[in-house]
Each structure stands twice: as structure tokens, then as C-alpha cells.
From TrEMBL:
Protein's name according to its UniProt entry: Reverse transcriptase domain-containing protein
Residue span, Reverse transcriptase domain: 48-322
SUPFAM superfamilies in the cross-refs: DNA/RNA polymerases
Coiled-coil regions listed: none
Superkingdom of the organism of origin: Eukaryota
Length: 356
């Protein structure tokens, strides 16, 4: 794709309806203004044309707002906050238009990885979990063992290299001309500053990573990760991904330990690929679980330890607690405990309100 198509008035109105109504200090006009008068927007359609191949410089600055992860946490500890990135509303309008056209191009040209469920229509954590769970269930029903490895990446979205990403867009997706240049100008010269109350920091340049809080960021990350699938396939290992959460797994027939060696080699190849693409595989947080007949798990665990893979009895996978028995009892207990905790807090809040 060498050229974006200009968006018409109807497409612009649809985009405005789809976008969240929140505003930030970078917005010249409130978001509600744009939405209220969306039917009167005719001239801005030409100004928002993407045929120039340049992303507007004033829309590249983000404001970071620290948000306490939980009300019960110590407010004086910086680690208890998460940074929330806000971008100008106008930038989101342009990004949404680009997202629609790029997404359509990726679908029409079969660019998406078949086993990537993150940030795709009709795909979710549910589809990723269903696929992997079903494969492991079928292995167990056939009398085979399964080994599931949950790969953990450190701050993957923040370490994306812009030069590598542009090469992905050109060589793996097929973008050229003004479209490729648009993404180049979209990524370069970005800045952010922190805002707390009436205080703001000096702007700092962003030299890597996909823009946090952006519409295109997750889609660009998927594109950045496209070659990883080929690395795993070359080792004949099954896999499924959701954004930066990648699950790789093998089937073990009785007496066959060959797949364990292939799994170890695959993890090393993945680690090498990560290093070459400025990503970091966190081996200390990568978890390994063995499924199958209880009396056979110890043998498989011993085999895995021979290639420096330490197993665990349970882990949290895309929000679901799974264990070696694969009966989801521990997940049900975790959900019940969490529900009880929230109901208790709601009850306490209602009682305090009544007293007032």
C-alpha cells in the first residue's frame, strides 16, 4: 500500500462516535465540542487527508498522569503508581482513520499471524485460551502428556525499536511511498511530560516503543512481533499469542523425549530473536506446567530440569488460574475469593454511607 484514501464526512462522523469522550490538557477544544458538531464537519475532512504522508508535529506530545494502582496502597511509593498516557483528541481521529485502512489491508493480504489473538476483531483472550486448552485436553484424552510454557517479556511495548518496526512495515506488510513515510513521521520526534496537580515536568523525547495510549500502538506491536511465529514454527512447536503473552506447548507420547529437546532449542531461538529485536525474555518469570497422567509428570519434570526449565504446579494464564490437574478448581476458588472481597468492600461502603 503506497497511498491512504482520504476520509469522507460520513467516515469522520463514524470515527467521532467510536472514540471515547474523554479530554486531556493537550486538547485545544473539549472532546464534547467535536462530537456535538460532528455533522457540521465538512472542511476538516480535507485537512485530515492522509495523502501528504506526514503526521502533524503538534499531535506527537503525550501527557503522563500517575494513577494509584489500588486505593489501599501507600501513596508515597512510586512503584504503587502506573503511568497513564493521554494524547490529543485530534491525533486519535487521524489514528482511527489510519487504523481502519491498515487493518483492512492486513486482512486482505493475510498479513496477520493465524495464532495471534491480540487486538483483532473476533479474537480475544477467550479464543487464545480455548485453542490451547482444547489442544491440551485432546492430548490428555489420547494418553499423552503436554508441556505448556508461558513466556514473559519485560516491558515489550516500551522497547520496540522504530527502525526495526519501519522495516517490518515495509518488508513484512508491504507499505511504501507516502504511507510508509507517514508512519516514519508518526514515530519520530515524539515527546511526553508528567502532570501532577498544577505541576508539570519538562518534555522528554521518546526514542523507542509504540506510543502508549494510542490507537495504533497495539496494532503496530502485532506487526513488530510477526517474525516470532516463524521462529517457533521452524522448531515444530505449537503456540498461541495474545499481544506480548506467548504460549508455546508440546505433546509427549509415552517414551518419547525428543519434543523436550526441541522445546529447549525453541526457547533459546526465541531468546536470540528477542535480543536481536531489542526485546527481553524474562526467564525468571517464564512459567512451565506439565499436564497429563499424575504418575508420569515427575519423569517429564526431571527431563525439563535437564534443560534448565523449572516447572510449577499452577500459574495465571491470561487471567485464568491453571494447574497441573487442569480442573480449574483453583481458578474457581480465586474468583470466589475475589468476589467475596469486593462484596465485603461494597457492603462496608454502603454501611458507612447509611451512618452519614
Amino acid at each position: 500500500m503506497a497511498q491512504f484514501q482520504p476520509i469522507n464526512s460520513k467516515e469522520l462522523q463514524d470515527i467521532l462516535c467510536q472514540l471515547n469522550s474523554s479530554s486531556c490538557c493537550l486538547d485545544i477544544l473539549p472532546t464534547s465540542f467535536f462530537k456535538k458538531f460532528k455533522r457540521s464537519w465538512n472542511q476538516p475532512c480535507s485537512r485530515l487527508s492522509l495523502t501528504s504522508g506526514v503526521f502533524p508535529e503538534p499531535l506527537k506530545t503525550a501527557v503522563i498522569k500517575p494513577l494509584l494502582k489500588k486505593d489501599s496502597l501507600d501513596k508515597t511509593q512510586m512503584n504503587n503508581y502506573r503511568p497513564i498516557s493521554n494524547l490529543p483528541f485530534l491525533s486519535k481521529i487521524i489514528e482511527k482513520a489510519v487504523f481502519h485502512q491498515l487493518n483492512e489491508f492486513l486482512i486482505n493480504n493475510n498479513c496477520y499471524d493465524v495464532f495471534q489473538s491480540g487486538f483483532r476483531q473476533n479474537h480475544s483472550t477467550e479464543t487464545a485460551l480455548t485453542k490451547v486448552t482444547n489442544d491440551i485436553r485432546l492430548n490428555t484424552d489420547s494418553g499423552n502428556m503436554s508441556v505448556l510454557v508461558l513466556l514473559d517479556l519485560s516491558a515489550a511495548f516500551d522497547t520496540v525499536d522504530h527502525a526495526i518496526l519501519l522495516r517490518r512495515l515495509e518488508n513484512w506488510v508491504g507499505l511504501t511511498g507516502p504511507v510508509l513515510n507517514w508512519f516514519k513521521t508518526y514515530l519520530e520526534n515524539r515527546k511526553y511530560f508528567v502532570s501532577i496537580g498544577n505541576f508539570t515536568s519538562e518534555p522528554i523525547e521518546i526514542t523507542c516503543g509504540v506510543p502508549q495510549g494510542s490507537i495504533l500502538g497495539p496494532l503496530l506491536f502485532n506487526i513488530y512481533m510477526l517474525p516470532l511465529a516463524q521462529v517457533i514454527k521452524n522448531n515444530n512447536i505449537s503456540y498461541h499469542s495474545y499481544a506480548d503473552d506467548t504460549q508455546i506447548y508440546i505433546r509427549l507420547t509415552p517414551g518419547d523425549r525428543g519434543p523436550v529437546q526441541a522445546l529447549g532449542k525453541c526457547i533459546e531461538d526465541i531468546n536470540d530473536w528477542m535480543c536481536h529485536n531489542l526485546l527481553q525474555l524474562n526467564k525468571n518469570k517464564t512459567e512451565v506446567i506439565v499436564f497429563g497422567a499424575k504418575e508420569k509428570r515427575l519423569d517429564v519434570t526431571t527431563e525439563l530440569q535437564s534443560i534448565q526449565l523449572k516447572t510449577t504446579n499452577q500459574a495465571r494464564n491470561l487471567g485464568v488460574v491453571i494447574d497441573t490437574d487442569f480442573n480449574f478448581d483453583k481458578h474457581i476458588k480465586a474468583v470466589t475469593k475475589s468476589a467475596y472481597y469486593h462484596l465485603k468492600n461494597i457492603s462496608r461502603l454502603l454501611c458507612s454511607t447509611d451512618l452519614e
